[in-house]
């Protein structure tokens, strides 16, 4: 293990998504040294997988690019990718944190030219595309990846593919002898911003996500609609590749359900309303869409967005919790349930079904390498017993992008107060 680095004035931010980047920048731009660690090969987190934000429908790359520019320009932020926290000791103003970094097998000499990927033959499921596409064994995680450096998948080590990749690099940037390393850092405060993961739709057995190709999740639909996604932005039936003419969106798929996620994830209603715009833009005015919902939770200015969708004559809002999904004789998927406003039983066929699955913390409070207070949903609660470990973004609660950034700013301010007190600059 390497010698300890950093000081009690340093703030450690765990997680390189929008919340982690926001917290790191807020702290660094008031003069605090920051270490930002991310377990994947690049920053960006879940937001980088979205096609657009609501309600303005702008592309997330805009916000991410601004943050990346700020990070690149700020020498106070040290970014460590492929790195995880494996141990925490100490207390406020004096934490000793053990970090473990996995090898990228590519050095900082990489220019992201892509020559290594061109000669590698092995392919694997693409994590960024949620398994909907495939990538090479030498790959750039995504177009906006930071650092803009390729990664060698460890599964090709020792193969001819790995040697071909190394030989193809004109800059000598591929080092197949890289090894996992550990370091201990001393920090004054910790911001935990590990974000969220979509609830596993395969666990909602009546909806058949694991059986029917034409039943997809809202995050899978985001990737489908993105021009940089696995279908090049074509919204299509996965089973046939044809454009769907009738689409169903099912709200609260697994959410507000004692058998799955008890809480409301707050983003699902707006995500669906946003995705109806994707359909209109990509497939025109003839596509019919039905939204099955318990209630629509669109507050503040977002209600205007909701009302605009309701004015579309070919979008129906059906107040019902879908009971189950089957496959019809014509190959389409069929939704079964009861319309609770008219108490009408239905068996409606669709070309494509989108499940608005909720969010759960990517790392639950009970899974942290140190004891912190957590609620029944796994989110980290604010509690004096946590010391100077502060949750940010969706590690703290189910939040949309705007509120996650606000949460991150608040966490940064709390961390700054702790390190200021440790330095005696605040009473």
TrEMBL record:
Keywords: 4Fe-4S, Iron, Iron-sulfur, Metal-binding, Oxidoreductase
Pfam family, one: FAD_oxidored
Any one GO MF annotation of this record: oxidoreductase activity
Protein origin, superkingdom: Bacteria
Gene3D superfamilies, sorted: FAD/NAD(P)-binding domain
PANTHER family: COB--COM HETERODISULFIDE REDUCTASE IRON-SULFUR SUBUNIT A, FERREDOXIN:COB-COM HETERODISULFIDE REDUCTASE SUBUNIT A
Protein name: Putative adenylylsulfate reductase-associated electron transfer protein QmoA
């Amino acid at each position: 293990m390497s010698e300890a680095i950093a000081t009690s004035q340093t703030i450690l931010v765990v997680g390189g998504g929008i919340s982690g980047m926001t917290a790191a920048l807020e702290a660094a731009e008031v003069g605090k040294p920051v270490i930002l660690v991310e377990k994947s090969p690049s920053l960006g987190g879940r937001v980088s997988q979205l096609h657009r934000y609501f309600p303005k429908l702008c592309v997330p790359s805009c916000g991410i690019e601004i943050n990346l520019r700020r990070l690149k320009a700020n020498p106070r932020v040290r970014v460590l990718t492929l790195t995880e926290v494996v141990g925490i000791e100490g207390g406020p103003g004096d934490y000793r944190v053990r970090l473990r970094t996995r090898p990228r097998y590519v050095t900082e000499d990489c220019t992201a030219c892509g020559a290594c990927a061109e000669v590698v033959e092995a392919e694997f499921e693409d994590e960024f595309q949620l398994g909907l596409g495939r990538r090479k064994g030498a790959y750039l995680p995504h177009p906006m990846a930071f650092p803009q450096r390729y990664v060698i998948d460890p599964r090709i080590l020792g193969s001819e593919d790995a040697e071909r990749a190394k030989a193809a690099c004109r800059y000598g940037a591929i080092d197949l002898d890289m090894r996992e390393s550990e370091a201990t850092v001393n920090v004054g405060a910790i911001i935990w911003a590990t974000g969220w993961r979509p609830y596993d739709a395969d666990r909602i057995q009546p909806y058949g996500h694991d059986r029917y190709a034409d039943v997809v999740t809202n995050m899978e639909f985001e990737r489908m609609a993105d021009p940089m996604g696995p279908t090049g932005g074509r919204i299509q039936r996965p089973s046939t590749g044809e454009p769907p003419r009738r689409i169903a969106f099912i709200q609260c798929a697994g959410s507000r359900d004692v058998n799955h996620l008890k809480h409301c994830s707050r983003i699902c209603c707006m995500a669906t309303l946003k995705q109806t715009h994707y359909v209109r833009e990509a497939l025109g005015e003839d596509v019919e869409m039905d939204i099955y919902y318990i209630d629509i939770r669109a507050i503040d200015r977002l209600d205007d967005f909701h009302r605009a969708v309701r004015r579309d004559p070919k979008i129906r809002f059906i107040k019902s919790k879908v009971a189950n999904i089957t496959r019809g004789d014509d190959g389409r998927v069929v939704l079964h349930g009861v319309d609770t406003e008219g108490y009408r039983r239905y068996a409606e066929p669709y070309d494509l079904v989108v499940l608005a699955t909720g969010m759960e913390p990517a790392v639950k409070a009970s899974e942290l390498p140190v004891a912190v207070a957590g609620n029944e949903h796994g989110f980290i609660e604010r509690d004096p017993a946590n010391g100077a470990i502060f949750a940010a973004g969706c590690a703290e609660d189910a939040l949309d992008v705007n509120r996650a950034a606000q949460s991150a700013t608040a966490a940064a301010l709390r961390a700054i107060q702790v390190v200021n007190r440790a330095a005696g600059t605040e009473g």
